[in-house]
From TrEMBL:
<dbReference type="GO" id="GO:0005737">
    <property type="term" value="C:cytoplasm"/>
</dbReference>
<keyword id="KW-0472">Membrane</keyword>
<dbReference type="GO" id="GO:0012505">
    <property type="term" value="C:endomembrane system"/>
</dbReference>
<dbReference type="Pfam" id="PF05719">
    <property type="entry name" value="GPP34"/>
</dbReference>
<protein>
    <recommendedName>
        <fullName>GPP34 family phosphoprotein</fullName>
    </recommendedName>
</protein>
<dbReference type="InterPro" id="IPR008628">
    <property type="entry name" value="GPP34-like"/>
</dbReference>
<keyword id="KW-0333">Golgi apparatus</keyword>
<keyword id="KW-0446">Lipid-binding</keyword>
<dbReference type="InterPro" id="IPR038261">
    <property type="entry name" value="GPP34-like_sf"/>
</dbReference>
<dbReference type="GO" id="GO:0070273">
    <property type="term" value="F:phosphatidylinositol-4-phosphate binding"/>
</dbReference>
Length: 211
């Protein structure tokens, strides 16, 4: 049983071998969306009115400190539209997510000098079995070799909604399977579909733009 958040699993999937992320995609924005998505699935959040303003529905603590901190920050910003909430949460989130992964030995922090004066932190993987296991569960669900558990289903729906499925597979038949599984999840939890739509709207590539 994993004790990682959806954002951390997403980070492992998106992380390049060099320890960085695709610059066309805002890792911070994607991680923020994953945290909101997970809290929505836990029935902690709700949306109101035609602008889909976000409110905390249940302040009960979860079993994870990062999710709890996210919930507290969203409570302070109640009434925000989803996109504004993402911007609030995204600040500094990449370092927080990757530091947690480093603490469990899955990545390491490495400073790199850029243009003589500036340094940046990259996060090369130090253990790949976990990432491979996540990808294997997703691939098995896409290949209809196994029915996904709820966590795998949730991550798959997030990847599909964000046009990120290519981190697992680029086969057309797998995209169709992902759409089918996602639609089943949306049918059971229509509000979750709205959260995903609001998080990913306004980007031609289906990827949250840089915040």
């Amino acid at each position: 049983m994993t004790n990682r958040t959806l954002a951390e699993d997403l980070a492992l999937l998106l992380l390049e071998d060099t320890g960085g992320f695709n610059p066309r995609r805002s890792a911070e924005g994607l991680f923020a969306a994953a945290l909101i998505f997970e809290l929505a699935d836990l029935d902690r959040l709700e949306l109101f009115d035609e602008e889909h303003r976000l409110f905390v529905k249940d302040t009960t603590q979860t079993s994870d400190n990062l999710l709890n901190d996210t919930l507290a920050r969203l409570a302070e910003a109640e009434g925000s539209i989803v996109r504004d909430a993402l911007g609030l949460l995204a600040v500094g989130l990449l370092d927080r997510v990757m530091t947690r992964l480093a603490a469990t030995g899955l990545v390491r922090a490495e400073k790199q000098r850029r243009r003589l004066l500036f340094t940046t932190t990259v996060w090369p993987p130090t253990e790949t079995d976990t990432r491979h296991a996540i990808r294997a569960r997703l691939y098995a669900a896409l290949a209809a070799a196994a029915e996904p558990d709820h966590r795998t289903e949730l991550l798959l729906a997030f990847l599909h909604a964000g046009d990120l499925l290519d981190v697992v597979s680029d086969q057309p038949e797998h995209a169709e399977r992902a759409e089918s599984l996602t639609e089943k999840l949306w049918a059971r939890n229509p509000e979750l579909a709205v959260f995903a739509e609001q998080a990913f709207q306004g980007s031609g590539e289906g990827v949250i733009p840089m915040i």
